[in-house]
Design a protein that fits this description.
Largest sheet: 8 strands, mixed
Number of helices: 13
Strand content: 15-25%
Order of helices and strands: EHHEHHEHEEHEEEHEHEHEHHEEEHH
Distance between the termini: 18 Å
Helix content: 25-40%
Low-confidence stretches: none
Number of strands: 14
Strand order of the largest sheet: 10-9-11-1-12-13-2-14
Shape: globular
Mean pLDDT: 95
Structural class: alpha/beta
Length: 391
């Protein structure tokens, strides 16, 4: 049996890329700056794997004999979005940025959406923090039944509705209509349903979030695997990010802990293929809210669970841990940051402690997985399989 367990720690970057200034992210360093502000992280298991040994890593202790192979990866694509980052991992190079709307969406587009979705209107239509905007406009939304429409520095069309005003399925329906409209020059990376509950002064977003992504090109790792009859088990928001393309089984999760539980459960099913997990709370709950302590605690909580994942591995399994971008909670910005991301590759039947340097693309990992399963070469990325395979 051959199997790859691929865990994406959403937004856990490790230092600004050379072009970070062009993205407004000069000085960002998600991991390093958390340590600077909060103090030392208690993450002994990731340290044993070699997290601190990665080139350019700051604030994390090194180990003499790393259990994993390690690297940092640069994003080749033109962006710092969740979708672009995950797509690149699977071999999709995005040369153009997805469209963003710092002044809100065009009036004619919004009016057409209101008409098709039969809405009484919308509130806001401008960039905003998701938690702050529901506090600001939640009560008006309840009174008027007008959905809250907002965006960010990322390519997203976000719709917030109270679950007692619009049932979750109604919110999903209006998201699907928006997704149909957002094509061509308006083809944003994701339409995001942001349901919430509660009363004024205590509005809380729920775990019923859904992402409606633009469809990826078919030349990617997940499609290649599915075409060969291999399992592609998507955990968390992976299915949404890839609009279901190449996914053979999926489960949505409410938080990191459930994501880890589902990953371990999927490993027990003993199917050949890929288990692809996104742990979103680093980004959605702590990074975007500039919650340094919450982010640090989240890293430590993941580290506690890491041995469970490793113990559930079979002899031929390979564990990959990486990220899709940064979201430095110590900077004034609450948006994603253009950063290198860490890469750890561990397995009982591969080499350990190989320094894979600085990879030129997130797609290097996808290309390596493609080689493991003897698939066609991906459009982007350079495999490092020959460097880690035991002879």
């Amino acid at each position: 049996m051959r199997r790859v367990i691929w865990i994406v720690l959403d937004s856990v970057g490790m230092g600004a890329m050379p072009d970070a200034k062009e993205f407004g992210d000069e000085g960002s360093n998600t991991l390093g700056n958390i340590v600077k502000v909060r103090g030392k992280l208690h993450i002994p298991n990731m340290i044993k794997l070699g997290l601190g040994n990665i080139e350019g890593m700051t604030g994390i202790d090194k180990t003499q004999k790393p259990l994993a192979n390690y690297a940092r990866m640069a994003e080749q694509s033109n962006g710092k979005d969740t979708t672009i980052g995950h797509w690149e991992m699977t071999g999709i190079y995005s040369s153009k940025k997805f469209p963003v709307y710092p002044k809100g969406f065009p009036t004619e587009l919004v009016e057409e959406w209101i008409h098709r979705a039969q809405l009484p209107g919308v509130l806001w239509n401008a960039p905003a923090s998701g938690t702050k905007i529901i506090e600001q406009l939640g009560e008006e939304h309840i009174k008027t039944r007008k959905p809250i429409l907002y965006t960010s520095a990322d390519s997203v069309f976000q719709i917030a509705c109270h679950e007692e005003v619009y049932a979750v399925e109604q919110l999903y329906h209006m998201c699907k209509i928006a997704r149909e409209l957002l094509q061509g020059e308006y083809n944003v990376g994701r339409v995001i349903a942001r349901p919430f509950v509660g009363q004024q002064g205590n509005f809380v977003r729920t775990s019923n979030r859904r992402d409606f992504s633009r469809k990826p090109p078919k030349d990617n790792l997940l499609v290649y695997m599915a075409q060969k009859g291999l399992m592609v088990y998507a955990i968390g928001k992976i299915e949404d990010i890839f609009a279901g393309c190449g996914i053979t089984k999926s489960v949505h999760t409410k938080d990191n802990q459930e994501g880890i539980n589902c990953t371990i459960q999927a490993m027990k099913e003993r199917q050949e293929g890929l288990i692809f997990t996104n742990l979103v709370e680093f980004d959605s709950k702590w990074g975007h809210r500039n919650d340094v302590e919450g982010y640090a605690n989240g890293l430590e909580e993941f580290d506690v669970r890491l041995p469970e994942v490793m113990e559930a591995m079979e002899k031929e399994d390979i564990l990959v841990i990486t990220a899709d971008h940064g979201c430095d909670p110590t900077t004034p910005s609450t948006d994603h940051s253009r950063e290198y991301v860490p890469l750890l590759v561990y397995g009982k039947s591969i080499k350990a402690g190989v320094n894979l340097g600085t990879r030129g693309s997130f797609a290097d990992t996808g290309s390596t997985v493609a080689e493991i399963f003897q698939l066609s070469h991906l459009p982007a990325g350079k495999s490092f399989y020959s460097q880690i395979i035991s002879q």
